[in-house]
Amino acid sequence: MSILITPSTKILVQGITGDFGGRHAKLSLDYGTQIVAGVTPGKGGLFFEHGTHKVPIFNSVADAVAATGATVAVVYVPPPFAGDAILEGVDAGLDLVVAITEGIPIKDMIRVKRAITGSKTRLVGPNCPGVVTPGTGPDSTGGCRIGIAPGYIHKKGHVGVVSRSGTLTYEAVFQLTSKGIGQSTAVGIGGDPVNGTSHLDIIKLFNEDPDTHAIILIGEIGGNAEVEAARWIKANCKKPVAGFIAGATAPAGRRMGHAGAIVGGVEDTAAAKIAVFKECGIEVAETPSDMADALLRAAKVKGVTLS
């Protein structure tokens, strides 16, 4: 099993005719992802072609859903228009929208956040690398790749990965795969201050997934999402969990990389979050290169064999 997506999930791509969206749509098609539609206003009736694939393009998400049965959208639309693109997926009743776009105005995301509350649509991102459920083929092909993560570093298995950082998601996945340990699903939730899905949301899904046997939680300075997840893990999760917090040397008040990575209070610091992780029984990786080993230590304590 996996969370959020499976290899049979039908995906539509908003912005498929753009350079960035088109490039990653091709990589996802090569991976085996079921891309059934593209959406670009004004280009309905055309096709996106790649090798033997011929993907129909529609003027709206609603048209694409009605014609193809797509249930998930990935958004590569430029920042000024990305908020409306996400809302189009919500209006069409999609199960999931994954927003890759970086730099969406915060006021637009506040509007999206309000609109999405209470709807059936889950938003992952924005400013995220996406979601990967590895397949069983060479370089993990045959799975479902949504977004920009390198599919070939994945391996089908039983570890769930959730992270605010795209690069650290890839690093954790690569370390696991290099040790022969596969992943159920890798989820990049993005580093913006206003996003759709939190660490805790994903941790709950991994906890409920019987095929996920252990979890890596990667966070950074700013906000309290990691602390919220850690305290829930302490009270509810019996699976081995390893964690890493980036930004240990970041000075207070200076934004580091992601818009949401800024220390605004004592509890926003890496030291404070690491202390809470330890208090909650999460095995802490001291450096980025220690993430897979930290999970192996956590698994050993709980008597869980990873594969």
Shape: globular
Order of helices and strands: EHEEEHEHEHEEEEHEHEHEHEH
| Secondary-structure class | alpha/beta
Number of helices: 9
Query: What's the rounded overall pLDDT mean?
Result: 94
Largest sheet features: 7 strands, mixed
Oligomer: single chain
Low-confidence stretches: none
In whole angstroms, the N-to-C terminal distance is 14 Å
How many runs of DSSP E, i.e. beta strands? Answer: 14
Strand content: 15-25%
User: What radius of gyration results from the CA coordinates?
Assistant: 19 Å
The share of residues in helices is 25-40%
Report on the architecture of this protein.
- The protein is an alpha/beta fold and 307 residues long.
- The protein contains nine helices and 14 strands.
- The protein has helices spanning 19-31, 61-68, 79-91, 106-116, 166-178, 199-208, 225-236, 270-279, 291-302; strands at 10-14, 34-39, 47-50, 53-58, 72-75, 96-99, 122-124, 130-133, 144-147, 156-163, 183-188, 214-220, 241-246, 283-284.
- The strands form two sheets. Strands 3-4-2-1-5-6-7 form a seven-stranded mixed beta sheet, with helices on both faces. It has a seven-stranded mixed beta sheet with strand order 9-8-11-10-12-13-14, with helices on both faces.
- Strand 6 (96-99), helix 4 and strand 7 form a beta-alpha-beta unit.
- Helix 3 (79-91) packs parallel to helix 4, helix 6 runs parallel beside helix 7 and helix 7 (225-236) packs parallel to helix 8.
- The two termini are 14 Å apart.
